[in-house]
Design goal:
- With 251 residues, the protein is α/β, with parallel strands linked by helices.
- Helix content is 41%, strand content 20%.
- It is built from twelve helices and eleven strands.
- Helix 11 links the parallel strand 10 and strand 11.
Length: 251
């Protein structure tokens, strides 16, 4: 009997652990990255000044593990000893674990592991007049920045990486999923979901709409339903553990 196949859409350099665990559980991971991550090449003068002023911020927020990796790489160039008196935050357990390797006490979301959960923290609810630095990739949602600004915080952003589309050609991806009998699809972000659907024509999308799709949270789950997926499972977060738990519960 053939192993059940799970389509994994994470960036390639972030997918090895998940794919290995899928194999251990008896699944065949089919890795098709729907996003590539690339560091921004150089610091602008404005970005350099933001980092030099790091000790003037009350709150520093990392949006993702990529933000930690690339952002801390920049920060270390100017701050071999990190400033005291700064509250450090991240969205997600993986980001927190990575940030803690710098010896920082990390504040995580309350309840849901997303921007909404982070905004529920009392110190960010009472941030009027505080300086807040959001370290992130280019583009993406503005909800966190906009909400903090509405609360009276002085918000700045440091964009340290960019998200690129998949390297797969549409015909290549369409042929691949046509040949595979997928048991489930794991998507790691709304943008990755959109990139996947853009690779397919209507006939190709129809092959996927009935396949159970595991989303890393309610926002992406709702996007998947609106796109046409009929079976959407909402994981508690984008971590390996949460995604695999959702898959086991489905099967």
């Amino acid at each position: 009997m053939a192993e059940p196949t799970v389509l994994v859409t994470r960036p390639e350099d972030q997918a090895s652990s998940l794919c290995n665990q899928l194999r251990e559980l008896g699944f065949k991971p089919l890795l098709c990255p729907m996003m590539r991550i690339e560091a921004c090449a150089e610091l602008t003068l404005e970005q350099r000044q933001v980092i030099l002023d790091l000790d003037q911020f009350q709150h520093v927020i990392f949006i993702s593990a990529n933000a930690v990796t690339f952002g801390m790489g920049w920060i270390e160039q100017f701050w071999p000893q990190l400033p005291s008196g700064v509250n450090w935050y991240c969205v997600g357990a993986a980001s927190a674990a990575l940030l803690e390797t710098w010896g920082l006490q990390v504040r995580q979301p309350v309840g849901s592991m997303d921007s909404e959960g982070l905004l529920a923290r009392p110190e960010l609810q009472q941030s009027r007049g505080d300086r807040v630095l959001i370290i992130k990739g280019q583009g993406g949602r503005t909800h966190l920045r906009d909400t903090l600004a509405q609360r009276g915080a002085r918000v700045e952003q440091l964009q340290c990486y960019r998200r690129l589309g998949p390297e797969l050609e549409p015909d290549e991806f369409g042929k691949l999923i046509d040949e595979q009998k997928l048991t489930a699809i794991m998507v790691s972000s709304g943008e990755g979901l959109e990139n996947m659907l853009l690779l397919l024509d209507e006939a190709g999308r129809s092959l996927l709409y009935g396949v159970p799709l595991i989303a890393p949270g309610p926002r992406v789950a709702e996007k998947a339903r609106k796109a046409g997926f009929t079976v959407v499972i909402t994981a508690s977060s984008a971590t390996d553990e949460a995604m695999l738990t959702a898959l086991r519960e489905r099967n």
